């Protein structure tokens, strides 16, 4: 096993062993309680489809108990050689989907993000940040909370290439002008939408940005 640090932005673990299949997208179920609120975000990639995951969970779940309403923000990609976003809700420089999920009211946070894949068919790798991150948000009964867009972009041929190499970087930003008209078609009529997009520049990570370099 080889461990490589890419500056302060994260760690890349290469395990040269039998390749593992790519992670399947998790199925997020909707909470059916009368006090439900909604979570809205968009997720996708820039230029080419690339797999990644941003997990989230409730902060007020009892210690040691698995949160049944945790989830994963991850793109829907497919294709054997060149990955593409499947049936996107929007396309262009950023391509992806707008997701609406019903959740119990409470305090939540998006936590450490990661991505993985294979290296020339010889093994697999997984990348995650070397410092913890937390993007908090609240879900309120009868309301929807928009937490922004989560996009992965290639870092090759950008100013980030010396530090990140081919690892890529992530953009977390407010794309409400694009995302919310799509989301509102899937929400109960007249539901209030609150925007809670974390300013990820506060983390000081080259791999986690509010805009392209």
Question: Main traits of this protein?
Answer:
single chain, 213 residues, mainly beta, six-stranded mixed sheet, four-stranded antiparallel sheet, 6% helix, globular
Written account of the structure:
The chain has helices spanning about 160-165, 175-185; strands at about 1-5, 10-15, 35-45, 55-60, 70-75, 75-80, 85, 95-105, 105-110, 115-120, 125-130, 135-140, 145-155, 170-175, 190-195, 210. The chain contains 2 helices and 16 strands. Strand 1 and strand 2 form a beta hairpin. Strands 3, 8, 13, 14, 15 and 16 form a 6-stranded mixed beta sheet that branches. Helix content is about 5%, strand content about 40%. The longest helix has 9 residues, at about 175-185.
Short synopsis of the structure:
The chain is mainly β and 213 residues long. The chain is built from two helices and 16 strands.
Sequence-ordered SSE layout with sheet pairings:
Blueprint (H helix, E strand, L loop, with lengths): L1 E5 L3 E6 L21 E10 L7 E5 L12 E3 L3 E2 L5 E2 L8 E10 L2 E5 L4 E4 L5 E5 L6 E5 L3 E11 L7 H4 L4 E5 L2 H9 L7 E4 L12 E2 L4
Parallel strand pairs: 3-13, 13-15, 14-16
Antiparallel strand pairs: 1-2, 2-11, 3-8, 4-5, 4-9, 6-7, 9-12, 10-11, 13-14
């Amino acid at each position: 096993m080889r461990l490589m640090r890419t500056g302060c932005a994260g760690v890349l673990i290469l395990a040269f062993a039998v390749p593992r299949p790519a992670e399947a997208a998790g199925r997020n179920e909707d909470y059916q309680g009368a006090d439900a609120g909604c979570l809205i975000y968009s997720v996708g990639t820039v230029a080419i489809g690339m797999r990644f995951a941003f997990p989230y969970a409730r902060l007020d779940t009892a210690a040691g108990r698995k949160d049944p309403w945790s989830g994963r923000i991850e793109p829907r990609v497919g294709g054997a050689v060149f990955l593409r976003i499947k049936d996107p809700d929007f396309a262009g420089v950023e391509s992806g989907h707008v997701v609406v999920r019903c959740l119990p009211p409470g305090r939540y946070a998006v936590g450490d993000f990661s991505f993985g894949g294979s290296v020339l068919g010889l093994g697999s790798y997984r990348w995650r940040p070397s410092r913890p991150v937390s993007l908090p948000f609240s879900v309120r009964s009868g309301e929807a909370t928009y937490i922004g867009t989560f996009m992965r972009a290639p870092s090759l041929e950008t100013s980030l290439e010396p530090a990140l190499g081919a690892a890529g970087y992530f953009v977390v930003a407010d794309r409400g002008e694009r995302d919310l008209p799509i989301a509102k078609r899937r929400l109960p009529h007249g539901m209030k939408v609150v925007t809670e997009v974390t300013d990820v520049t506060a983390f000081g990570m080259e791999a986690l940005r509010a805009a392209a370099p």
